[in-house]
Specification:
Residues 1-24 are annotated as: Disordered. InterPro entries: DUF1499 (IPR010865). With 132 residues, the protein is of the alpha+beta class. The chain has a single domain (4-129), classed as Kinase associated domain 1, KA1 (TATA-Binding Protein). It contains two helices and six strands, in the order ββαββββα. It has helices at 39-51, 111-129, and strands spanning 15-18, 33-35, 56-62, 67-73, 80-90, 93-102. Strands 1, 2, 3, 4, 5 and 6 form a six-stranded antiparallel beta sheet that branches. The chain is globular. 32% of the residues are buried.
Length: 132
């Protein structure tokens, strides 16, 4: 199981991380996402957004634990990128930690950052459409 608290990002620029200070040992690219929804609902909407993307295989989805892991393969060469999410209860809402990383190569042309941004937008649309 993926653990944000022990995440050691590589020095290569082929990852993207959304987390708050203290969530991971290193610096994130931006803060965790926040929603006024319970963690199970947020991670279920994340699962739906991930499954709507092409070439995605979900490896782990545990709504009770608030965790999600999947692999999305690149269109041309089918390189695998790992995507992890963890929904954490915070007050009356949820913080969503996200990490996307290429398994192969040293650069990604910004693919992982763009993926997290695109999937985050899709997640917001799903939650807003549900009355958020």
């Amino acid at each position: 199981m993926f653990d944000f608290a022990s995440l050691q990002r590589p020095r290569t620029p082929n990852t993207a991380l959304y987390a708050d200070p203290g969530d991971t040992p290193g610096a994130a690219d931006r803060g965790a996402l926040r929603f006024v929804r319970p963690p199970g609902e947020v991670i279920a909407a994340w699962d739906a957004a991930a499954r709507a993307e092409p070439r995605v295989t979900v490896a782990d989805f545990d709504p009770e634990a608030g965790t999600h892991a999947c692999v999305q393969r690149s269109r041309l060469f089918r390189f695998p990128d790992d995507v992890h999410a963890k929904a954490v209860a915070e007050g009356e809402g949820t913080r969503l930690l996200l990490y996307s990383a290429s398994r192969i190569g040293k650069g990604d042309f910004g693919v992982n950052a763009k993926r997290l941004a695109r999937w985050s937008d899709a997640l917001r649309e799903r939650l807003e459409g549900a009355g958020s």
